[in-house]
Amino acid sequence: MAIDTKKCVGCSDCVVACQTENNVPIGYCRDWVVEVMDGTYPQLEIELRSERCNHCENSPCVRCCPTGASHYADGGIVLVTKNECIGCSACIASCPYDARYVHPDGYVDKCTFCLHRVKKGMQPACVAVCPTKCMYFGDLNDPRSDVSKILKKRKHKTLIPEAGTKPQLYFLI
Amino acid sequence: MKSRRQFIKISSLSAAGLIFGGGLLDSLASSILKENQSYFKGPFDFTRTPTYCEVCFWKCAGWVYKDENGRIKKIIGNDDDPNCNGRFCPRGTGGVGMHYDEDRLKTPLIRTEERGKQTFREASWDEALEYIASKMKEIKEEHGPECTALFSHGSGGKYFGKVIKGFGSRNIAAPSYAQCRGPREVAFIATYGSGVNSPENTDIRDTKCLVLIGAHIGENMHNGQVQEMSDAIDKGATIITVDPRFSTAASKSKFWLPIKPATDIALLLSWMHVIISEELYDKKYVEKYTYGFDQLKAHVKNFTPEWAYGITTIKPDQIRETARTMAHAAPAVLVHPGRHVTWYGDDTQRLRAVAILNALLGSWGRRGGFYNPDKASVPHYHLPPYPKPEKTWRDAMGGKYILADLALASGVCDASIPTPDLDCSIRGWIVNGTNLINTLPDQKKTIDAIQKLDLLAVVDTMPMEITGYADVVLPECVYLERYDSLRISQGREPSIALRMPAVDPLYNSKPAYWIARELAKKLDLLEYFPFETIEEELDWELKQVGSSLEEMQKIGVKRLEREVDDLYFADGEDIEFDTNTGKIELYSTVLEEEGFDPIPVYTPHPEPSEGFYRLIYGRAPMHTFSRTANNPNLTDLMSENSVWVNPKVAKEWDLKNDQYIYLENQDGVVSDFPIKVRVTERIRWDSVYMVHGFGHADKRLKRCFGKGVSDTQMITNVMIDPIMGGTGMRGNFVTFRFDNKKTEV
Ligand code: SF4
Ligand code: SF4
Ligand code: SF4
Predict the structure, then answer these.
(1) Is the ipTM of this complex over 0.90?
(2) How far is B424 from chain A (nearest CA, A)?
(3) Which residue out of A111, A122, A123, A136 has the highest number of ligand 2 atoms within 8 Å of its CB and is therefore the one to mutate?
């Protein structure tokens, strides 16, 4: 997934769309918005980013999960199998991005890249709703996908690359 | 904005939020039992019903999805809808919370004791409507039927309007006019003979240069405009933002002009100066279509960027460079007229300056500027004529504000306060879907007017402050539970959209059509409601345009053919504008006739005194005025407002981030509630900023009661626009207080 920080307006539509799509209880979230401001008046810059699980290729959460509930699914998507999760929160401690939370029902929950939608050929809920169309989702291994094309064209970065997790979420800058 | 840090805090606090999580959790739990990997299945392929969103005036059309238990699950934009292109904004997506909000009004209420004390008793619909009808009849007998008024901001207005008009009054006002976009409409009508209306005919999608002057697209989520601004960014358009605050839009702009507040007209005049003196204007267009160029040229001769610098604090070279950038992009340039424009009382003149600047650049009627909108014409069933009232609120205004093309909510409010020089004293109000206490500036005056009334009937979904002053409160069901009149929007293509109920009304709430018709029955006005149900009326109307209720229930939105000519003026096309001269009036003959400046002039406005800061307010993308402040989904994203303070000011006052303080304005009004400080470089040192719509004082709004400060409470100085009666609200100054104890005078 790639997210264009030049277009995002920080409206949080992606957050509420994810909540209603995925039954995320009010008070919790799988995605969230970060505003980073730099400079002094009037020389200012703002970066707005919608963040979520990075679906890392080398993910510490999968490595440290004692039950195997955290695993890689098709296409490298990182998932948690709810009824295998014992809620020990080891993964939460290991994730450098704070992408996971304990669901009030006792298991750990996080972004699934809306696999249930993607399997039906739909876009993830956050991507589909974003009024600025600033998110691109698709197969990074397919050079013809929208996301590959935009990454080729634009400068981009990942978050906390020094953690060595190989994030699969790219921010266009 | 929802951030991880906030999230922890919210979850530790949000017992209230979880109340309604319960049902969702149940259904989630059962789907987990059924299938291990329930997230693959997505239990979410439900029946869907069409609606158009009621959370703001953009009225996006979408689909309401339910889960297998028949509960509303999510709302998604309709791909065929030109207003939203399949994408709702956060408020529309969070509209589900309007249905689930457990603080909703549940049953009709009748006041039993003194005003303002909120001692209501529950009543039946029949009893409540009977009460209203008999009060209205009393007013009619004693004072005349014209002494009643309707305030409305929402879809039910059409039906209550029929009742009021049939009853014999024309006092129908929406606060979206004098408190919001009125000056813009009057200015554009004076210049081009037509307003920009809603959704605005701004061609942002194809613009090469977008100029925002006090408009903060992206924080105001006028959906189509936000989407198109993003398209324009993709296509490499230059954005110029003029704002004392580093808005989200400013952060997307090539040029941000951090103007000193209240000096915009000086900047606009100076831009005109550059464009005319450097001969950058569209000569062919100006010559063919405009009137009064020579007068304008002479008028702006001395308004050099150096002159404007002293006033606006914008550097002369920046003024020149931005003017040239606009001219370079012309005619695909759009000096955006904004929407909430009632600032300093000379707002019609400021918007005139915007209109004139667009004319010099030749952008009206051109691609990337303003397109020619079209609107579906859906015939209405022929009704008997409405009685002509003997007088209206206008008579109470003593001949002022003649150029106001719609009724002024503040004017109707004023006309309710009997004074020796007002001759129309309004005695009864019906208020539908607008919280006048937080919408009209000068709360005290509004409350004074209410105290003089014989009848205040409020139809709303939520126990907003205004309901606390009502004699009768009628619970309207929310938009997800009802039919309403068709949405007929203007746009590049005309379209119609249907709203139908996804679920039955919760509690003892009812739709506006039913309420209005039942009231009409009691007033012997049934002739204005020939159809017994709204379904029949909608079906009749839809059949006139070749559709039907049945078809619309399936498709939700129908795009119709354009009936009028092209989106843009053809090259050299002859055009007659609907003005006195038939031309675009750079020099306004109509303003001259009425004794106003025919070309805008800059007048200095009062400035904050030592220790005070100009109060600027705006919008957050996840809320609409105060309407959404209690919505469980949206308060989860933003639950209170904060006051933005420049670090220099914070240092002087020793204010820290997240500290709570009170505000006091120039008239000694201290805020009811404290507000959180946000120390940020994003605001000038002479101003503070807050998001409008918070600081609710009604305890029945459990989630938002006492959260933040109501800017409306701080706005006691109202600068009236002499041309059309707009209520300028940016002439208020606040200082900080560490407690809210009354000071001894
Ligand atoms: S919906 Fe889009 S624009 Fe809004 S915050 Fe999310 S990513 Fe940004
Ligand atoms: S991809 Fe789906 S689960 Fe992940 S943040 Fe977006 S909406 Fe939520
Ligand atoms: S812009 Fe948002 S709140 Fe307004 S009608 Fe559209 S979806 Fe609803």
Answers:
(1) yes
(2) 45
(3) A111
